[in-house]
Each structure stands twice: as structure tokens, then as C-alpha cells.
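Researcher: Next entry: AraC family transcriptional regulator (Cohnella endophytica).
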Amino acid sequence: MTTSSLDDLMPTVNFANRATTQTDTDWGARIIPDCQLVYVVSGQAELFIGGKSYTIRTGECVYYGPECPHALSAPIGTDYYSVHFEWRKETAIPVHPGHHILYADDAELSSATLSQTSIVIVPYGEVTFPTHMTVSGLEPILAKIVKEYEFERPGYGLALRGLMMQAIVHILRQLLDIGKPPVTRGRIEPAIVAMHDEPGRNWAVSELAALCGYHPIHFAKLFKEELGLLPKHYIIGERIKLAKRALLNGEKIEALSERLGFTSLHYFSHQFKRVTGLTPSEFRMLGRP
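Model: Predicted structure:
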């Protein structure tokens, strides 16, 4: 296990892109020279590493470090972000990892031991980066990283370093929250299930609170404590997840906005860009193979 202090990090982004795969894409068993973060926007990817298999669904990501044989594939068409980076490096200028990527055989892949990374955050203690995780709100930061990497404007290396640091802190904050005892989720579970079953319904807080047997004010407080969001913002996030897949499947933006319960096309576009960093039209265009 590698342990570093948050205050000592100097991340360097070596490569960043957003791409869409075809069905049954397989990158093979590989060994990379740096670290990689893969975030699935829509679709599904599979990772085999350290003797375990991980399914990466929409809104989820995986992280793994250097010199560890792994196999990454996508059984269906998948829209994803990929960022190669190093935790600490004096220069911020990207060095593409492609020339140093090696291919592994089956024996190396099956016998590989997964090495984890831990970050010490004063005064909170040590946080271990998991291989597989769900991180809300990460997509807009990744979109900025890709844009900065592609355009290479003056100072882009330092800009990438700042954005990668922002992404790391964003992930660590959510990991710290995940570590808290889940004392209230069972209490709000009926509301979560209802919102998932009917995401296009214009849910009132009083209706959701009644499903859980609480006064609306107390319910909203419990919901915020557990998920870090108000019920309104939570259901908007769930609608956006559904919207991303529907857009890539060709559904018309106007019909999608209405189906998912947004009050207007303008409001839908505003919320979509707030969550993803892109308008629905931009997302559809960039998500095409």
C-alpha cells in the first residue's frame, strides 16, 4: 500500500479523454506506468484486477495504480471518461503513457496483487482509495480536465494539476462521508424507492415524508444528513442519469424533458449542464462514436 499526505500531493495528468466504445470492446490485459481513473457516463464496463471482477455502471468509476496487470472491457456501447495521472511529480507537463503500456499474459493477470493508495488528511486520518466507487458530481470536473488537456492553452499543465487536485479532494470528501455510520438510510428508503420507481413524477416533500412516516421538515433534515442532498436535488440527479442514456439512444430532447418531469425545456437544459458541464445537445454530440 502507498500512503501520501494530502498536503504533499502534486498530481500530474498524463492523458485525459472522453470516448464512446462499440459493443464488446476489449482493451486486453495491460500494465500501465501510472494511475488511471475510469468513469462511466452511460453504459457498462468490466474490470478484472487483483483476482476480482468489478462491474462499472453509469455514474460509477474505478481506480488502479501502476505496474498492476488488469483487464478492462465494455460489453455494451459505453460512454466514459479516462484520466491517466501521477500522484506526485515535479513537472506538471503531461507525458503520454502509451509508449510505456505493456501487455500481460493470463498468468500475470491471475496472480497479480492489487496495490492500494491511501491519503492522510489532517485531522481526519487516513482514507484509502477504493478500486470501485460511486462519486456524485465528478463529471463536470472530468469534463474540464478533458477540455484543458485537448486545447493545450498556455499554462495547461498547471491548470490540469489544479483540476486533478480538485477531483481528488472531491472524491476524498465523499469517501469520508461514506465512512460515517448509515444510521438514517433505512428511515428514508421508502422515499428513495418511490423516486426511483417514478422519476418523472413531481414529488412533493410532504408526499415523500408521508411514505416514511415523518413531518416534512424532519424528513428533509434526515435526507440531507444521509445523502448530502435535499430530496429535490437528489431526484434531479436521478433524472439526469436517465436522460444521459436516453439522449445517446436518440430520444428527442423535448420529449425527454417532458417524460422526466422537468417543467420546461430551458429548466431541463439548465439542470443537465449544471450536473454534467454540457448541454443535452453537446452531450449527445460528444457521446456519438
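Model: Note for the record: The chain has two domains: 2-178, 185-287.
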